TrEMBL record:
Belongs to the LysR transcriptional regulatory family. PROSITE patterns: HTH_LYSR. Residues 8-65 form the HTH lysR-type domain. One of its GO terms (molecular function) is sequence-specific DNA binding. The lineage of its organism: Bacteria, Pseudomonadati, Pseudomonadota, Betaproteobacteria, Burkholderiales. It comes from the Bacteria. This is LysR family transcriptional regulator. InterPro entries: LysR-type_TF_proteobact-type, LysR_HTH_N, LysR_subst-bd, WH-like_DNA-bd_sf, WH_DNA-bd_sf. GO terms for biological process: DNA-templated transcription.
Length: 303
């Protein structure tokens, strides 16, 4: 007899399937364009709904429990059927144009994802394919059709158009600087670990320190793979991050992150987010995306 009890939420099942397939919450988060904490939260909801533990949490790894392994086999098979059916249906849609977009996963999950639903409504004939990577995608070589890059512009061999400026300031969890530990001047920041994300051309802390008159020679640097990890580490009280206000607006508004030195933000009009395309005339899909992303960016003023 078929059960009438409702299925668990699809978001929780997707998070579980991706985390079980990768055996990693962080890699699942990158695949789904969400934060690691969001994946963990969805899996905790699923475990509560099912009344069983699906994973064994270890210090630096996760493993499926026996029941989790059995459940994954069925959930994975169901998602594979969905993927196969979706691919077959899409194969009939020969008029849809695929457009690949290279970008940072932090920008995809923390800014673009919440706004992306308006693009297919305006352009149902274009299928966006987001390709997150910390390396610069080769736009002229055709690795992606367009890219969204962070920096100061001036990349060789491509056309770049600024989408929006970025505001930078050191941020951290309130508990890190509570009471007598609160920094009073830029030099006080050197008492805390400096959280830095990997970048081909790192410039954020250097640009801000020049603005603030701070010598970083004795700074304790903690190099992390991705800006999403930097934010999670800052939220956990592990150190001070260079806050990109566009990406952490929600955390600043909620107070889970605060400016370590209020009033010390850097607003450099050269620093921001850029749309990068091939030189010359764009095709219809790339031109449509450029118009949409430019308009969307203009609707997000810095406050």
């Amino acid at each position: 007899m078929r059960s009438t009890r409702p299925l668990p939420p699809l978001l929780s099942l997707r998070a579980f399937e991706a985390a079980a397939r990768h055996l990693s919450f962080s890699r699942a988060a990158q695949e789904l364009f969400v934060t690691q904490s969001a994946v963990s939260h969805q899996i905790q909801k699923l475990e509560a709904d099912l009344g069983i533990a699906l994973f064994e949490r270890q210090t630096r790894a996760i493993e499926l429990t026996d029941k989790g392994r059995a459940y994954y086999a069925k959930v994975h098979a169901a998602f594979e059927l969905l993927r196969l059916g979706t691919s077959e249906i899409r194969a009939f849609s020969t008029e849809r144009k695929a457009l690949s977009v290279g970008l940072l996963s932090s920008f995809a999950s923390r800014w673009l994802a919440s706004r992306l639903h308006t693009f297919p409504l305006a352009h149902p004939d274009i299928e966006l394919q987001l390709q997150p990577d910390i390396a610069l995608a080769n736009v002229p070589g055709g690795e992606v059709d367009v890219a969204i890059r962070y920096g100061r512009g001036g990349w060789p061999g491509v056309a770049s158009q600024k989408l929006m400026s970025e505001r930078l300031s050191p941020v951290c969890a309130p508990s890190l600087i509570a009471g007598k530990k609160r920094p009073r001047k830029p030099q006080d920041l050197l008492r805390f670990p400096m959280l830095i994300s990997y970048s081909t051309h790192s410039f954020e802390w250097e640009a801000w320190s020049r603005h603030a008159g701070l010598d970083l020679g004795e700074a304790q640097r903690v190099q992390l793979h991705d800006y999403n990890i930097v934010v999670e580490a800052a939220l956990a009280g592990q150190g001070i991050a260079m806050g990109r206000h566009r990406l952490i607006a929600q955390q600043l508004a909620q107070g889970s992150l605060v400016q370590a030195l209020p009033g010390a933000a850097l607003d450099d009009p050269r620093i921001g987010w850029w749309l990068v395309t091939r030189k010359g005339k764009l095709d219809g899909a790339a031109s449509a995306f450029r118009s949409w992303i430019m308009q969307t960016a203009q609707q997000d003023p810095l406050v």
